[in-house]
Amino acid sequence: MSVKPMRSMLYVPGDKPRAIEKARTLGADAVILDLEDAVAPEHKDTARQNVREALRGQWPCPVLVRVNGLDTPWEHDDRDMVLLAGADGLVLPKVEEAQTVLDLHVRLPLWAMIETPRGVLNASAIAAAPGVRGLLVGANDLARELKTRPHPERLPLLYALSAVVVAARAAGKQPIDAVFNDVRDPTAFARECDQGRLLGFSGKTVIHPDQVAAANAVFGVTQAEAEDARNLLDAWNAARAEGKSVATYRGALVEQMHADQAAETLAFWQDTQSQAT
Fold this sequence. Notes:
alpha/beta; 2 domains; eight-stranded parallel β-barrel; 48% helix; lyase activity; Pyrv/PenolPyrv_kinase-like_dom
């Protein structure tokens, strides 16, 4: 099943009703109402009720819920609420093996968080599990378990990041890059988005309203890219009409795979433009 690429997935703490309400207006491709790391233990029940109420309203985008882990006191109540309240998907933290997903038996799209070395090693099997729509990198926990040090280019994490991309793409699922913690540094955030797209991620999880538009821009399609894709398709279709199996565009050889990629680019552009209007 083809799913629209998620350029931005905005985490919103479940115990912050005003932030939840504002999230409806920010233009994220998906909102993740968070019951896990962003919510203190004493606020878990209140957050769950807030999320239940929020899911009753209309949203302009898919709304997912990140539940607490399977080894916590809250996981059963979280999952029951998500199943009954009409969420568009469930985000499961710290998935380390495919069997965890298989044992859930939920009737919702699953987004598995890869946050540990074991999760990275088993990412291919996790991505291939039925019901999984994508893999989300949890870089903070992963870096801690790997005992790495911070680096502006994320060099200690590059193997793990690429492993998640390869696993997700091989299974036909979406790889989503990790959050960027310093909300005061938009330049560094944009640079990390560029790196994520270069690595092959579909989009990025974000934690601040100001990060949404930047992620949408980097992981989206520009008007120039759309026009280039349209021109390439025109050249391809003209060649095919003449009975040719290849074409040339701007001096480069064009084959079927290039035409398919251009068609995907153009379709994504058209989809995002219709959403904007």
